[in-house]
Amino acid sequence: MDLEMQAKRRRDAALLNYPHSRTDRSLRPRFCLYRSNGELFFVNHTDETLDWVANGSVGGFIDAGGDPVATTDAQTHYEQVLPGEGVLIDAFDAQFDCDLYIASTITVASAASGVLQFQCADKGGARGRVLLWHDGFVSPQVRMEVLTEDRNSK
């Protein structure tokens, strides 16, 4: 995890690619994670501007003595995430982070959904995946919680 990561926004066609895991190929995602060259982006696939998106990531590993060790928490926050826009929420080093289990907590606020929180954990950091589909289905590797119907809560 990169604790000195700079805020970054992208709007390009590559961000709109996502791993389609549903039987009905016409279904589209609402929110995805996109990973490229060690950078992890949250991508807004909806037609609405999101009020804000925040991420907190913490890593952990087992040391030589068999004891768990947690790394420092990294956090990002973006206001007004546009439709089709990706925001950088974490960065990973393929060599140094490959043995870490890194948990990401992504919180999203919007007029349509209120405040939603997504959690996922992977060895080496989060992978590209759909978090939530337009039909409300949450991907199996993801835990989603509706925090509030009030989008202004932080």
What attributes does this structure have?
single chain, 154 residues, mainly beta, Immunoglobulin-like, six-stranded antiparallel β-sheet, five-stranded antiparallel β-sheet, 50% strand, globular
What is the rounded Rg? 15 Å
Overall geometry comes to globular
Count the E strands. 11
**Mind telling me which CATH architecture this is?**
Sandwich
Figure out the total of helices. 0
Under CATH, the topology is which?
A: Immunoglobulin-like
Task: Give the total of domains.
Answer: 1
- Reading off the top of the CATH hierarchy, the class is best stated as Mainly Beta
Described by its quaternary structure, the protein is single chain
Beta-strand content estimate: over 45%
Measured distance between first and last alpha carbons: 24 Å
Please state the average pLDDT score. 82
Q: Low-confidence parts, pLDDT < 50 over ≥5 residues?
A: none
Instruction: Encode the helix/strand succession as letters.
Output: EEEEEEEEEEE
Largest sheet: 6 strands, antiparallel
Specify the structural class: mainly beta
What's the helical proportion of residues? under 10%
